Amino acid sequence: MNRQENHPARQWLDQPKAVRDEDQFDLTALDAWLRGQGLDLAPGLPEVHQYPKGASNLTYRLTYGDKVLVLRRPPMGQKAASAHNMVREHRIQSLLARSIQSVPKMIAVCEDEQVIGSEFYVMEHVSGLILRSNLPSGLSLSKDRVRQLCLAAIDQLIELHSVDVQTTGLDQVGKGEGYNQRQIEGWCGRFAKAQTWNVGSGKKVMDWLQAHCPPEKKLCLIHGDYRFDNLVLNPNLSEPDEPIEIRAILDWELATIGDPMMDLGNSMAYWVEATDDFYFRNFRRQPTHVAGMLTREQVVKYYCERMGFEADQWAFYEVYGLFRLAVIAQQIYYRYHHGQTRNPQFKHFWFAVNYLLWRCGRVIKRSRI
Questions:
Q1: C-beta of residue 95 within 8 angstroms of C-beta of residue 170
Q2: 346, HSE (Cβ side, Cα atoms, 13 Å)
Q3: What CATH number has the domain bearing residue 115?
Q4: Do 200 and 287 sit in the same domain of this protein?
Q5: Which stretches of the chain are DSSP H helices?
């Protein structure tokens, strides 16, 4: 059953657009496969639209009359061997649904690349508000309401990091102990493979990370890309009597078993504040600058107090998060640079990569570890 209601705030909901030419697929083959899974679908081919946001996996909305589904598939072009695993992403969400409610219902997964040219999975469509760079036009939130929203998002991350992976079978989706060191080695290697002439070497940052890598605080399921534009919220946020509900967490591509502090470092790399410099503010992707949002320092303090962690080595996790984001941006830019995608939003990613490397260096200079 699709969670679609007649929200008074429907104008704030995400609207997909026409499918980009480079991201088209055989709709007839997909329709035949879906019907072969025993799904109750309206006659005829579905209407297909593409969600334009996101720079990694591709997301489409399939509309069969009143039934709305969401399809996820890998991007076109060169991909890291361990990346964009649709079967794994499907499995993680299926297992996690036993422990937390904020996971979309998985419907079917296809490993046969002959159907649409890649593996893919289909899940339920969860109707709600996804916050992007700014609050939607007309959505007015008090400072206190923004703070509640901020704390709800952090509390959801804490709940995720508290899931018992042993009893759910999620302990099998990652290698576990040694995660931190593997991450540093892995992201350094990926950066080297994706380098282009217009980005820095990153050597000083990589050397520092390798020299200061701590053991894991604990091992749990981590999301890997936890931020507001991967959260589906109750769209009635402006109503004080409405609960601040996180209806779904999206984009589980990078989820694994690892150190929750590394996950927090990933999230804080996207946490742009109103007082940050112009360049960092320029590629903000979530409304963390709005009055009432906690600062990065406050988020870290709040999270660590509730998880029972010390934050004495935070500089390492902050640099890691920024560097990892630089590598992700560079991997995406590499595809654009070599003509594997024509998506214009990737054209200037090389600039972001250089800035993030510079920001890593600034944190290192100020660190006391």
A1: yes
A2: 21
A3: 3.30.200.20
A4: yes
A5: 27-36, 86-96, 143-161, 165-168, 179-193, 203-211, 260-268, 278-282, 296-307, 314-337, 349-366
pTM attached to this predicted model: 0.91
Splitting the chain (369 residues) into consecutive groups of 10 residues, what average pLDDT does each group show? 47 82 95 97 97 80 97 72 79 96 96 96 95 90 96 98 96 93 98 97 98 97 96 89 93 95 98 96 94 98 98 97 97 93 91 97 94
Phi–psi pair at 339, nearest 5 degrees:
70, 20
In a domain, 293, yes or no: yes
For the chain, how many structural domains are there in total? 2
In a domain, 48, yes or no: yes
d(CA 210, CA 188): 9
Cα distance between residue 123 and residue 71, in whole Å: 7
Is residue 317 situated within a structural domain?
A: yes
Domain enclosing residue 228, as ranges: 143-366
102, 156: one domain: no
Specify burial of residue 152 (Cβ count, 10 A radius: 0-12, 13-18, 19+).
Answer: middle
